[in-house]
Amino acid sequence: MSNSSKVNNSTIELKDFDFLIGKWTVINKRLKERLKNNTDWIEFSAEMETKPFLNGLGLMDEMKSSHFGDEFIGFSIRMINPQTNIWKIYWADTSAPENYLKEQVVGEFKNGIGEFFGKEQYQGKEYKLRFTWIKESENTAKWAQAYFDEKKNEWETNWTMEFTKENEE
Hints:
Blueprint: E1 3-7, E2 10-14, E3 22-31, E4 41-53, E5 58-65, E6 72-81, E7 86-93, E8 102-110, E9 113-122, E10 125-135, E11 140-149, E12 154-165
Antiparallel strand pairs: 1-2, 3-4, 3-12, 4-5, 5-6, 6-7, 7-8, 8-9, 9-10, 10-11, 11-12
């Protein structure tokens, strides 16, 4: 499925996140403790559905998991500036509804890999944040989140997701 959008009477093909459109099973792996030389990962599953909107200028998805006790729902919106090909990703979830929908990261795809950067508060301190998106195949994709560890001067991946597309019936 390809998205196209009219901007200034010309059609632009927007394909960067097209691979995410549909229903997915997601295996999450999250570090038990971040930025503490921890190697213990917590694994849990989720379901996600992604849909395009505004003729392809954006995508929205809803992710659901019962790992956190109550039904957890995360919601993201991805919007592209078709003139610069820069994406902004916004996030909100039921674990902290007071945080409302917020811009999380900004970035773009190059050679099939999406890199997006922002800042995030973690344990009272602001950290540089990086998301990486990779389409592995027609039915699989990977996402990774990392914080920049200033003490080590390197990125620490603290959360990964492996996506497998559900069969459409």
